[in-house]
Specification:
Elements lengths: L2 H11 L3 E6 L1 E14 L6 E14 H8 L5 E9 L2 H12 L3 E8 L5 E8 L2 E8 L7 H14 L5 E5 L8 H13 L4 E4 L13 E2 L3 H8 L14 H14 L3 E5 L5 E5 L2 E6 L12 H14 L4 H15 L10 H10 L2
Parallel strand pairs: 1-4, 1-8, 2-6, 4-5, 8-9, 9-10, 10-11
Antiparallel strand pairs: 2-3, 6-7, 11-12, 12-13
């Protein structure tokens, strides 16, 4: 795919209207320096230099979309607490629409706190309590979704396995979107095995694809296109989920696109350096979906997603990229 082909796709992306539904969480980063070991235990003492917060989980997918399109909605659950208020503030500042947010009194907003020193993550502290199933809350979510659906060009279901998406809600969202002709892509979670029938595309990583297909983990060959286990996983998942597209992310091996009735398409990695892979999958599903909604062919959308992921893994933290960075990556690899 040439840079010349990329430009008209990106121009169309500006007008797309995308909704991201899934588990919302607040990503907190504590940056510091280490100069000594604690006398209390054999652990480093971190002198804090700065602290930062970013929208995480499904909200990070929305954050990745925002530099490329003007209208991005999030549909998800927040607690009536300080982290929830902080999340609203961050999303609003980013220009992301808040009309799909559902507040749950008495339930704490999910937080992930990463402590980093010398460019290395030392520890991650997770604060989460999966919400109990609640029919009234599900009805509120579906009502918000139905109100937004007529204006949308595409939907992303982002499942981090934190309790927002269950089979009832996923099936309802997929059915309503299909009835309106709005394509849905999915970033699945193996801890929450759902049926994604009706989706336009599903994007697992290799381990998730093998797990969903019921295959044992194996050492991949040097060339992803010659991976027989992954090929079998792709065949099974296209059939099981009855989907036209399956995009499998492969880390340093890039991405492999399985397309109904066609041989797999391999896009080798575009990353120059890898500092932090957190959030790379969010970038991939965001740009893949956006490109498809803008009229890109599936192989072109996979290339765009791969270039975008290659940029963000070269940054520390839950990173995003700009339009200019994506264009530059295509020019450098032309």
């Amino acid at each position: 795919m040439t840079p010349e082909r990329l430009h008209p796709i990106l121009e169309t992306c500006r007008s797309r209207r995308i909704l991201v539904a899934g588990d919302l969480m607040l990503d907190e980063f504590v940056w510091g320096r280490v100069s000594r070991i604690s006398p209390e235990a054999p652990v480093p003492v971190v002198d804090v230099i700065r602290e930062e917060c970013y929208p995480g989980g499904a909200a990070n997918v929305a954050r990745n979309l925002r530099p490329f399109c003007d209208t991005v909605h999030v549909l998800g659950l927040l607690g009536n607490d300080a982290p929830g208020a902080r999340m609203r503030e961050l999303l609003d500042t980013s220009g992301i629409r808040l009309d799909g947010l559902v507040e749950e009194a008495g339930w704490p907003t999910i937080r992930k706190t990463r402590i980093i020193a010398r460019q290395q993550q030392l520890v991650r502290v997770d604060r989460e309590s999966p919400p109990a199933r609640n029919s009234a809350r599900t009805a509120r979510v579906i009502e918000r979704f139905a109100g937004l659906l007529p204006s949308l060009d595409a939907i992303i279901l982002e499942d981090y396995g934190k309790g927002f998406l269950d089979q009832e809600l996923a099936s309802t969202l997929l059915a309503q979107a299909t009835a309106c002709g709005v394509p849905v892509t999915v970033d699945p979670n193996p801890r929450n095995p759902l049926d994604w029938a009706g989706a336009a595309a599903v994007k697992p990583n290799r381990s998730e694809a093998l797990a969903a297909a019921g295959l044992a983990e194996s050492n991949p060959p040097v060339e992803a296109i010659r991976d027989p286990v992954l090929a079998e996983a792709g065949r099974r998942l296209l059939e099981r989920w009855r989907i036209p597209l399956l995009l499998v992310t492969l880390g340093e091996e890039g991405m492999l696109l399985f397309r109904e009735g066609m041989p797999p398409y391999h896009s080798p990695t575009k990353a120059r350096e890898v500092f932090d892979v957190s959030g790379a999958g969010d970038t991939a599903i965001a740009l893949f979906t956006l490109a498809l909604s803008a009229g890109a062919m599936p192989e072109e959308a996979a290339e765009i997603a791969n270039h975008a992921s290659g940029v963000v893994v070269g940054k520390l933290g839950t990173a995003t990229l700009t339009r200019d960075e994506l264009i530059r990556s295509f020019e450098e690899h032309a």
